[in-house]
Amino acid sequence: MARSTLKWIGIGAAALFAVIVATAVLLLTRSYDSETLGERLLNEISGDDFRVSAEGFDFHPLSGLEMTGVQVWSAIPDGTMTAAIDKIIVTHEVRPMLTDRLIFREIVLERPAMDVVWTTAPAEATGGGPGGRDSATPTSDPGGPADAPPPAGNGAEEIAEEKADGPEPTLAITRFAMVGGHFDMRDQGAESPTVVMENFDVELRDFTVESGVGDVLARLTSYGDLRAERMVTPVAESTDARGKIALQNAHVLLTQLTMPMAVGDMVFDEIDVDLAAEPFTYRVAGAGTELRTHVLFGAKSGFGPARLELEMNGEGTATTNAIGGGRLVVGAGSLGQLPILSGVEKLVIGSNLVGRAYEPFEVRFRLGDEELHVEPFDVVSGRSRMRFGGSVALAGGVRLETVLDLPREGLALKALPKEVVEVLTDTDGRVKLPIVIGGTAEVPEVQFDRRAWGELLKRRAAKEVEKKIEEELTKALGKLFAGSSSR
Predict the structure, then answer these.
(1) CA-to-CA distance for 298 and 296, rounded, in angstroms?
(2) Could you give the C-alpha distances from 238 to 195, 197, 313, in angstroms and in order?
(3) Phi, then psi, of 343 in degrees rounded to 5
(4) Chain-centre distance of CA 229, in angstroms?
């Protein structure tokens, strides 16, 4: 009897264990397609400064989850971020989740369309949610009001308890990728974005957020690669840009970023963005070799290849507060058809500048006060020399002071009397012509610098008077000494 009882108990225990195992396997391997589970999860991770919704939600306990039609809204320092994501695929590891580490093998965002809008004041959290791509204030709220619990459905319990205080667990993602994305960054109220990336791919490896409290960006580290089919910034437009990206200590660091542009390939050794600063700050260092100088200057042809070195610092999306400097080294070639040179030719008939060969020259410049300040530099072409210097406003206006040092023969100076030209001609038969250039680079206003000419004429006149006085004095002294010797 006892043996029989024990036998049936053993059989029953084995059967119960088999049922438990089968149930566990079934629960861990089945596909959860539950609106309740999706709503609870999305409402749990949403908060005052973050909203997320999804049209489709599919959960697999052993592998991960998949969400489709995802809409995200988030408040960020001095702005908001919205995103529309076609699909998010998450694959995780179960065992580390039983500890204080969340480990994901892969998180992939397919075709994310992201829009960052910088505002003058923090966005209101109430009523926030994924809004239009051109709106800084979201118009919908997938998570409901910030102070309301998520709706109960199908027996789901309300999630109203506050999250426990304390350090957040370590988050580790082996691979985090965004594929086929679009990114806009703009100022609130602006008609067009200041930064655009079209059809971009980002792949980050060893994406880790260390356990702790406070700013997540300060605890985040990762590295990887970036590619964008088209990239537009306030100063350049590029196709098929490629580079390295790293995240560390609230900094986004781009290195070895190659940006093919109409002017040639620019390679940025470093673009360092500090996201902890408010507004964010940036530092840029780059160079370009074998650049198409005629494109850079706005000419159809002419000029030799150029080398550009650039360093720049700034903050926020505006370029008007940027400071920096660099130099442009232009190789030998022929002077191209620039509107400024054409204007000089009309003013100084016979100068014949366009098409003439020139020697290599170097331009040093600095950026500040919303202007590009150009240090004086010389362009030498045969027996002619041109000195340029001044400033170019970021808004487009130019103010250049130019001195042409040309041989006198064959020149006809418009609007200047021949007598004045003769006075300005030195003993070597050369004439120095001060010219001022205003307007814009496309439509310049070229005219004689009459203030500089007046000063030059005064100096020349003073020299002529001194010369005349010296001659008369010499004659008088000669007569005086001659009369004394005859006595």
Answers:
(1) 6
(2) 11, 10, 21
(3) -65, -40
(4) 16
